[in-house]
Amino acid sequence: MDSAIVGSFLIMFGLFYLLKSELVDFQIQNWLATFGGWTIPIIFILRAMGVFKYVGFFKKIKNTDFGKNDSKLFSPLCLAIGTVGVIVQSLGK
């Protein structure tokens, strides 16, 4: 169930950037483009930093299989997605 929720949000984030890119002829309101354009990267950067117990660069439990993969793959990926999102929003119209 949790994976389905995360997957749904990732699909919504992808659709947001598809609409923002104007590759699809559909206009979104300026306040939504600004709000979403900053909210999505912030979510990913916070997830990458992760002052949580199990996720992020600053997690407390690191010696599990998930913890090792999180440090090696997931957290850097979230940081990269967040950074690209900030760049896209900064350079946007």
Can you tell me about this structure?
The longest helix is centred in the last third of the chain and has 27 residues. The chain is 71% helix and 0% strand. The protein has three helices and no strands. It has one domain. It is elongated and about 45 Å long. The protein has 93 residues and is an all-alpha fold.
Cα distance spanning the termini: 37 Å
Q: Please give the largest β-sheet.
A: none
Alpha carbon gyration radius: 15 Å
Domains, number: 1
Percent strand equals: under 5%
User: How many separate helices?
Assistant: 3
Structural class: mainly alpha
Which residues form runs of ≥5 with pLDDT under 50? none
Draw up the topology in text:
Elements: H1 2-20, H2 30-49, H3 65-91
Give keywords:
93 residues; 3 helices; 71% helix
What's the quick description here?
By secondary structure, the protein is mainly α. The chain is built from 3 helices and no strands.
